[in-house]
Amino acid sequence: MLDVWTAVSGLTKNSNLTFAATSQAGGISRQTPLPNDTAAKMIASSPEQRKLPAMSQQKAVWLKSKQGSFEVGPAPIPKPGESEVLIKVHSTALNPVDWKIQAWGFLIDNYPAILGGDAAGIVEEVGPGVVNLKKGDRVLTNGVKGNEHATFQQYTLGYADVTAKIPENLSFDQAATIPLGLATAATGFFNADAPSSSVGLFPAWEDGGRGKYAGEPIVVIGGASSVGQYVIQLAKLAGFGPIITTASLRNTESLKGLGATHVLDRNLSKDALIAEVAKIASAPVKVVWDTVSEAETQNVGYAIVASGGTLVIVLNDAVQNKTADKRIVQTLGNTNIPQNRKVGASLYSKLTALLEGGTIKPNPVEVLPNGLEGIIAGLNKLKQGVSYVKLVAHPQDTA
């Protein structure tokens, strides 16, 4: 998942911090290794203390310790390696997993850490072997796997095969809402290489994939969430129908505009929801996509999915009274992790065209003020509950 980034040259995943203090006595220089807690503090200290060139510096939001506080401080600007690009981040979006990492203390073992999974910006530098992108391209990418690839900072690295050009009809803010939400939806649907985390269907964006599942009903629990909006759009692209979703009824017309055919009140009881789905779907529901994945919604989804079908969840399995004839898959929604890389590269090779043609539409945007500082306040807001819009910050606006 998200790992601590190489804070200074020579620091790699699972290695110890290797800062040293230099002193002079009698004309002889001596270096004394600093303890890890002291070194960690230096990451958030001034450039003068860190003795790094100003041109190598940027600002980032640091999670200082497990279940600790967030703080804006200096960070090194990473250098792109083989098949990577350096991106100047103009917009980054917030996701529920970001506040959960802080509150629950999971996914990250090494601190301090930079979080963030969505970036849109401009390519500043290309690494060796990159042929599909060049300096100056407007791009979006999915941040993950170490601080170099996290997005709550002014510069980040993207893997070229899962970085796409932004079409002219989309702003940076709109583009930043796409990577993690779309990746979660796509990998949950279409990753045949990961049967434990995907339904394993044929990708809807590939030749022969569009409309392939015509006439097959689907239920999407939580259609107004960021992931839910992309699940609905991919379901439409794949031909599913009817596309039944639960949401606040105030979002009915918006969700129908994305492809939902029926929007049911998210406050319906389990029995009432099952009854409504049965009225609408004339064929067995073989796919239920639960983008909420609380214990209650998982058990409702499992009750709805037909024998031989699959329930897709995004959090840990909380289903009770399982039967052998139904699958449950927990999707790991990121294009950068090894099991998702092939399907992710396939998606990103077609993504610019899908966005340009309006086949895939971004989430609605709410822009947070105050640059990176706005992320800290935004995560608290997200924790309280945000529906239908995606919170987006502008790292370059940081004071």
Provide a short characterization of the protein structure.
This protein is an alpha/beta fold and 399 residues long.
CATH architecture of the largest domain: Alpha-Beta Complex
Helix content: 25-40%
Report the biggest beta sheet as strand number plus sense, adding barrel if it closes.
7 strands, mixed
The tally of strands reads 18
- Would you tell me the structural class of the helices and strands? alpha/beta
Identify the overall geometry.
Answer: globular
How many domains in all?
2
Oligomer: single chain
Q: Average pLDDT value?
A: 89
- Portion in beta strands: 15-25%
Q: In words, what does this structure look like?
A:
This is Enoyl reductase (ER) domain-containing protein. GO terms for molecular function: oxidoreductase activity, acting on NAD(P)H. It holds the Pfam family ADH_N. It comes from Rhodofomes roseus. InterPro entries: ADH-like_C (IPR013149), ADH-like_N (IPR013154), ER (IPR020843), GroES-like_sf (IPR011032), NAD(P)-bd_dom_sf (IPR036291), Trans-enoyl_RdTase-like (IPR047122). By secondary structure, this protein is α/β, with parallel strands linked by helices. It folds into two domains: 156 residues, Quinone Oxidoreductase, Chain A, domain 1 (Alpha-Beta Complex), CATH 3.90.180.10; 150 residues, NAD(P)-binding Rossmann-like Domain (Rossmann fold, 3-Layer(aba) Sandwich). The chain is 27% helix and 23% strand. It contains eleven helices and 18 strands. Strands 5, 7, 8, 9, 10, 17 and 18 form a seven-stranded mixed beta sheet that branches. Strands 13-12-11-14-15-16 form a six-stranded parallel beta sheet, with helices on both faces. α3 packs across α11 and α5 crosses α6. It starts with 19 loop residues before the first strand and ends in a 6-residue tail after the last strand. The N terminus is likely disordered.
